[in-house]
């Protein structure tokens, strides 16, 4: 079981564009075209499935919101931060 990060650790370690939202970190990615957002969400889903760590993904017309948390641990862990970094690399 992974340890959750403290609020200060989350603030210090969250990648660019990510912020704390309760017991999760969240980022909204903007897109010019709807299908570009869908493609991005699919890429995120494939990476998440490989890592067996599944975010909440919300697709809207011109944006995709990705929310990461470790439910079993009750908050943000190192795995969430690492996945956020990988998602940033996708976009």
Description of the structure:
- By secondary structure, the protein is of the alpha+beta class.
- It is globular and about 35 Å long.
- Strand 1 (19-21) and strand 2 form a beta hairpin.
- It has a four-stranded antiparallel beta sheet.
- The model has no long low-confidence stretch (mean pLDDT 94).
- Helix 2 packs antiparallel against helix 3 (78-90).
- The protein is built from three helices and four strands.
- Helices cover 42% and strands 22% of the residues.
- The chain has a single domain (7-90), classed as Transcriptional coactivator/pterin dehydratase (Gyrase A, domain 2).
Number of strands: 4
Largest beta-sheet characterization: 4 strands, antiparallel
What would you report as the Rg, rounded to the nearest angstrom? 13 Å
Low-confidence stretches: none
* Total number of distinct structural domains: 1
**Secondary structural class:** alpha+beta
Q: What pattern of helices and strands is seen along the backbone?
A: HEEHEEH
CATH first level: Alpha Beta
Proper CATH architecture: 2-Layer Sandwich
Relevant CATH superfamily: Transcriptional coactivator/pterin dehydratase
Question: What is the strand arrangement across the widest sheet?
Answer: 1-2-4-3
In whole angstroms, the N-to-C terminal distance is 30 Å
In DSSP terms, counting alpha (H) and pi (I) runs of 4 or more, how many helices?
Answer: 3
DSSP strand content: 15-25%
Shape, please? globular
- The overall pLDDT average reads 94
CATH topology: Gyrase A, domain 2
Keywords: Lyase
Biased composition (Acidic residues): 1-11
Pfam families: Pterin_4a
Region (Disordered): 1-20
């Amino acid at each position: 079981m992974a340890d959750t990060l403290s609020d200060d650790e989350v603030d210090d370690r969250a990648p660019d564009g990510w912020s704390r939202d309760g017991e999760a970190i969240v980022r909204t990615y903007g897109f010019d075209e709807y299908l570009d957002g869908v493609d991005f969400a699919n890429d995120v889903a494939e990476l998440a499935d490989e890592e067996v760590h599944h975010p909440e993904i919300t697709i809207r017309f011109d944006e995709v919101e990705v929310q990461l948390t470790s439910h079993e641990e009750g908050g943000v862990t190192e795995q969430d931060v690492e996945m956020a970094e990988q998602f940033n690399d996708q976009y």
